[in-house]
Amino acid sequence: MFRALVLQENQNRVTASIEELSETRLPDGDVDIAVEYSSLNYKDGMILKGLGRLVHQYPHVPGADLAGTVMESRSRLFHPGDRVVLTGWRVGELHWGGYAQKARVKSEWLLPLPESLTTKQSMAIGTAGIAAMLAVMALEDHGLTPGKGEVLVTGATGGVGSIAVLLLAARGYSVVAVTGRPELHGYLKSLGATTILDRQELSQPSSKPLESERWVGCVDAVGGTMLARALAQMHYGSSVAAVGLAGGNKLETTVLPFLLRGVNLLGIDSTQCPVARRKQVWSRLANELPLEKLDALTTVVRLAELPRLADEILLGRVRGRVVVDVSA
Ligand SMILES: NC(=O)c1ccc[n+]([C@@H]2O[C@H](COP(=O)([O-])OP(=O)(O)OC[C@H]3O[C@@H](n4cnc5c(N)ncnc54)[C@H](OP(=O)(O)O)[C@@H]3O)[C@@H](O)[C@H]2O)c1
Prior knowledge:
This protein has ten helices and 15 strands.
């Protein structure tokens, strides 16, 4: 038997409860994992609240990310005792996820945990951290290097934003962090942001299709008007990595930043990202993330706290990353 947070749907209402399940309930897969930690991402918040019709079948165990130790394997790739990590692949959405002490998954979704990271640290990174690193790599693949100017990070106190600020600052970039939370300016400075910009400055549409050139790169977790404003403020030949939609999924802009300034809009997807790229991402994260600062931006919670925290993350009130101790 193992503990899990189980979602049930009744008359279009999704409810969560902690249940003791038998292993016979586990879905198909070739590797069984003793899960130690999972994490809370924005999409997990939507699934916990039954939003967006992301889950097709109930009862359901959510949790897009998980890390733990292999218990049993019917795959050549993994063996009992291996420490493994899983992010994305629509686990916790179309397949049972990490909010449980046990998981049965497909071996091709798993990666060995980097030696230098604990299972807890890997979940402090999780999907949000993978997306932040993919964004930094995409910007660098398109010519971003430290010393060229200021890099904008939107939704900066959230999971993606916090790790993006930390990664960019650790690589020597000058980071301008956009936040709607004045009380967290000190937090953002502690992650390495050089300047803080109030969300208000970018939250209203501009009448001008092009504004003064301000940013040499941008990691955008917000979308909507903020992404449109950032595009209009990019330096000639620079790039924006579009990661999130915390502020909306519409984009009203003109083609002028692309045509007159050669700006690139780079799409970031951590869910179906190919395995070879994921390995590069984990290797860079393990080498470049300052782990003491990663620990400082992480809050560890119990399974029972997740329904409340789902509301918080959807309201943009979670700071940094939330790691779930599935045995607590
Ligand atoms: N593409 C991918 O592969 C990928 C992977 C992970 C996440 N995502 C997406 O990235 C986004 C952020 O994820 P997350 O885990 O970082 O979520 P999060 O922890 O909730 O962070 C989002 C942040 O955005 C800001 N924000 C929230 N509502 C806003 C609004 N209405 N207007 C402007 N800013 C707002 C807040 O930051 P401040 O308070 O500092 O302003 C908030 O902390 C989500 O949309 C998520 O789905 C995408």
